[in-house]
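fyi for ur records
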Amino acid sequence: MPKRSLLAQQVDALLYEEPHLMSNLANAAALLNDSLADVNWVGFYLYDEAKDELYLGPFQGKVACMHIANGKGVVGTAFAEQKTQIVADVHQFAGHIACDAATNAEIVVPLTVNGHKIGVLDIDSLKFDRFNTTDQAELEEFVAALGKHI
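which gave:
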C-alpha cells in the first residue's frame, strides 16, 4: 500500500468518528488553511441539485461568492467536468468569477462520495502559478480521505 500524504492522515485523525458534515468541512478548511503556504482562501462549495448551482460552504478567508452556477467559472467547471482544475492565472480563465480580485491562481478539486456529487474544494492564492500536479495529487488524496467522513 502506498504511503498516504500527511494531510490525508491528518484529516482522518481530525475527523475520526465525527459524523457532522458542516463541522467536518469547517475543520478540513481550517486544516488546509493552516498547512498550505501561499494561500489566501480555502473552502468548499456544495451542490444544490434543485437549483443546479453550488453554494458557499465552510471556508477560511475573505468573504466569498455565495452562489456559483454549475459549469460557470473555475468552481463550476471543476464540478461539471468532475475533474480537478489548476489555473496558473485566473485572469486568463474564460468566464472566471472574481470573488476576490486579488486572487491570481486557483485549484478546485471535485468532492464526490460513493458516486454522489457533493461539491468542490476550492483553494486560491495571491501568487501566480501557485499550484501544480503534486498539489493536485495531494489534494485529491485529501478529498478522498475527507469523503470517508461525510
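The helical segments are 6-14, 21-35, 73-81, 133-147. thats all i got for now
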